[in-house]
Amino acid sequence: MSHNIPLTELGSYTRQYLEYLEIERGRSLKTIENYGHYLASFLMASGAKDPKDITDEMIRSFRLWLNRQEAGIREGRRETLKKKTQNYYLIALRSFLKYLRKRGVESYAPERIELAKVSERTIDLLTTQDLQRLLAAPDGDSLKALRDKAILELFFSTGLRLSELCSLSRDIDLGRDEISVRGKGEKVRVVFLSDEAKKAIAAYLKNRKDMDDALFVQDSKRTREDGSIRLTPRSVERMVKHYAAKAGIMDKVTPHILRHSFATDLLYNGADIRSVQMMLGHSNISTTQIYTHVTDSELRNVHKKFHGKGR
What we know:
311 residues; DNA polymerase, domain 1; hpI Integrase, Chain A; 2 domains; two-stranded antiparallel sheet; two-stranded antiparallel ribbon
């Protein structure tokens, strides 16, 4: 995997760190690719060649460099990297410096790197009515309609990430209410199937004629490089967008928004946050806590609407 990392002592440590992420930490190839890009950008922008070269001034210059990088042009206006994206670079650099410290290599103290302040994250959600219309949008008994119905029901039943859903095998036991999935960092967790999801998957599999191992396959016989006809993440994104438009939903709808809907539905109905964290596969509960802000806001609206009306 090439990242344009220079042939310097610091570059050598960077390559070793990326190998460490893959072998020792079990990070996904996508994560390693991203970290390689972030660190290569730092080495290129800073010109640092030795671990001892990194200074306060070098970090400050790198942050200025990040702040001036263009992310693209939208509607005729140039856009720079968002603060959240800039933080990805800084997180990777901080993690790399911690690795150097662990190996006893003298370099810059990772805790001196502060992340940029970002505005509180907002979550896009579907209303209950929009969600019901979306789930009902695939109609008919064609194989494609049955497949798409199964995908939408499975997303809402389990809160799976897009990559997790696309990697599922058809060898699942629908007699049980749960399946095991391998998520980020190769961590395995259990997710649970609703009656609607089980029914939709069973109807789809009953009508499948191919012998492919994938749970969800292309509606045509197009094969991928590995010879599989497994459905791609991009195809699923397009499918969800199609049914959102068909259901008359004006807001943006993505597989990740269905994951948000899964989490908030549980919290609205009384689930504790630790359980939701485990079902989503979040390694840190702070990631899950973003959903409590949404439900707190909803509870506030309920209180305002219904409390003290008889006084």
